[in-house]
Design goal:
- The chain has 253 residues and is mostly helical.
- The protein has helices at 2-26, 38-45, 49-62, 80-104, 108-125, 132-152, 156-165, 177-180, 186-205, 209-232, 234-237, and strands at residues 35-36, 65-67, 73-75.
- Strands 1-3-2 form a 3-stranded antiparallel sheet.
- A hairpin with a 5-residue loop joins strand 2 (65-67) and strand 3.
- The chain is globular, with a radius of gyration of 20 Å.
- InterPro entries: GntR_C, TF_FadR/GntR_C, Tscrpt_reg_HTH_GntR, WH-like_DNA-bd_sf, WH_DNA-bd_sf.
């Protein structure tokens, strides 16, 4: 219907504006503390005010922007402690998703997709060392596993909250995987992470909710370790998209 088409078009424009501004922030073109007004964003993106206004509000909701009392928005920065907490929230929600998937059961087609994803990661790790191309493949497969897990819980509420928790690139499942690539034990860390993937899938298939939840929450500990290593290694941290937004560990929030 015409009304539905118009709504879809407006939503598409909002997403386009949101992604465009997000790219400017994470690429470092807009530094922490930089002011962003609606009019500036309209001019920079070459878009109308309605989708830009909605996009700015979404980025505030994600946590990349904060409203300024005098009007407009400012780009946020993040302390190591904030990143640690963001990963913890994501791990808690993923643990809940795994438990619900185990307790409620998973659609057979979705379960088959999860098995295929795990098998693809197994195949990738069978032939070390991990090249840059293989790391990129791992990132894609790892993100796919986590997206499928979110869908497997069969809860739109949990899925929405997980999507919000993963919106910050630092809190996403693969947020610090590429940083880990420069570590001497990189391959071993990925092998451990994959063993956890298999264990979570096994717990879900056996309908062992508590075990699935505990395993998934433990899985997030790898991201915590990668974060801590990155904050100690500036050359590694520089490889992270959006690293310019990260303050020193222990800095004031």
């Amino acid at each position: 219907m015409p009304g539905d088409a118009a709504a879809s078009g407006a939503s598409s424009q909002t997403v386009k504006a949101q992604l465009g501004l997000r790219e400017l922030i994470l690429a470092g073109e807009l530094a922490p503390g930089a002011r962003i007004t609606e009019l500036w964003a309209v001019d920079r993106l070459g878009m109308s005010r309605t989708p830009v206004r909605a996009a700015l509000m979404r980025l505030q909701d994600e946590g990349l922007l904060e409203a300024v009392p005098s009007g407009g928005y400012a780009v946020r920065s993040f302390s190591g402690a904030e990143l640690y907490d963001a990963i913890e929230v994501r791990g808690t929600l993923e643990g809940l998703a795994a438990r619900l998937a185990a307790e409620r059961g998973v659609d057979p087609a979705l379960m088959a997709s999860l098995r295929d994803c795990v098998a693809d990661i197994d195949a990738l790790l069978e032939d070390p060392p991990m090249t840059e191309a293989k790391f990129s493949q791992y990132v894609e497969l790892n993100e796919r596993f986590h997206r499928l897990l979110a869908s497997a819980c069969n809860s739109s509420v949990v899925e929405r909250q997980l999507a919000k928790a993963m919106a910050l690139p630092f809190a996403s499942p693969s947020g610090f995987v590429k940083v880990q690539a420069v570590a001497p034990d990189a391959y071993q860390v990925l092998v451990v992470a994959q063993a956890q993937h298999r264990a979570v899938l096994d717990a879900i298939e056996r309908r062992e909710g508590a075990r699935a939840e505990a395993l998934m929450r433990e899985h997030a500990r790898i991201a915590h370790r990668n974060l801590e290593n990155a904050l100690k290694n500036q050359s590694a941290l520089s490889q992270l998209f959006g690293a310019n937004l990260i303050r020193q560990w222990g800095a004031e929030v």
